[in-house]
Amino acid sequence: MHVNRRVVLRAGLGTATGAATVASPFAPIPRSRAGSGPGRWRVQLLVFDGVDDMDIFAPLEVFGCAKHFDPRADVELVTAASPGAVVLMSGTRIEVPAGWAPERADVIVVPGGGYGLPPGSPGVPSEIARGRLPRLLASARRDGLTLASVCAGAMLLSAAGITRGRPCITHHRLIERLEQEGGVVTRARVVDDGDLVTAGGVTSGLDLALWLVQRELGSDIAVGVEEILEYERRGTVWRRERA
User: Global pTM?
Assistant: First the structure.
């Protein structure tokens, strides 16, 4: 029997096993915000020199589409440096109008970029060596803030001590390093440990963002965004079962 995955998603069906929910990409999540009041759901995408283009633009597209369905969704690009020009991994130069302000975010998405390039090239390894960005991420933690990463962005969270002892995932070529640094590597496309959500793979920003939209704004909106983008989510989502 053929089952339309989007029909299942809208119907709110899913499975749970053991201490964690191991779901298809369209497993149900109760609507924690949709219809719950006028407050905004504020997402910040962190941008720095050497960032992977797809790691920011894929989730930016998803969150931007979500805003058409629910005006409470709000997304902005921010930089840990002064607002201004940032050069992406492709060499593309963009203007980032907002600086570091984690106090006005409900979610901060940390992208990857820079691995496999010559030493000293802009990107995650250089930001880790510099140390300032990991310190800012570590100090940003508070109740009500979700820190999320795309691909190698998990290594910045690891350098900040945020993934230590917690389920997480990153690009497959960095999994061993993430584990060595104390992360509990969990083999899924998206790993949701509450206020820490990580995704593995260069294109996983789409799946991460769609999952967060589903979790916070509801399944109908996530399906609507998928239909606009003509994209069907890949892999599985691992989610810790709530007490």
Answer: 0.86
